[in-house]
Amino acid sequence: xxxxxxxxxxxxxxxxxxxxxxxxxxxxxxxxxxxxxxxxxxxxxxxxxxxxxxxxxxxxxxxxxxxxxxxxxxxxxxxxxxxxxxxxxxxxxxxxxxxxxxxxxxxxxxxxxxxxxxxxxxxxxxxxxxxxxxxxxxxxxxxxxxxxxxxxxxxxxxxxxxxxxxxxxxxxxxxxxxxxxxxxxxxxxxx
Length: 191
Fold this sequence. Notes:
With 191 residues, the chain is an alpha/beta fold. It has one domain: Rossmann fold (3-Layer(aba) Sandwich), CATH 3.40.50. The chain contains 6 helices and 5 strands; from the N terminus they run H-H-E-H-E-H-E-E-H-E-H. The protein has a 5-stranded mixed sheet. Strand 1 (50-55), helix 3 (65-73) and strand 2 (80-85) form a beta-alpha-beta unit. The longest helix is centred in the first third of the chain and has 20 residues, at 5-24.
């Protein structure tokens, strides 16, 4: 059953405030700095009825962060994980069929931070084409998803260094992937 408009607006405001508070709780530009810090916020957003959508291109260096996270946490966390690569729209109806109350997208995003920084964003804080590194921004997909199934929407961004086609993932981003995976497992075990 879909949420009504009033409930959806209330949830959107709650998530905006939580993300705003999260950003205020650590030094701007440094991202989320500990596994426990990220796990705490993941646990605040995700319920048993949530899904994680990992986006990116494994052939483009650091842009493969999302798919790498998917491969490492699928089956190890309590949430359904979708590795959508660069075609999230192809998974739209499968995601809608799970009727999630929250969708969290993991993606390499250019948000002008230190390489490997990790941040959480409400979908409403990303505008236009957004800071995606591999084509259409996750916000476009989230807007379409919202038309079919209104739900809370959060984006976990990892600041990349190199997203050139054919490049290898940089050590900083590989370390950020380890960090994110550890936080998801920690959050899953604490819920």
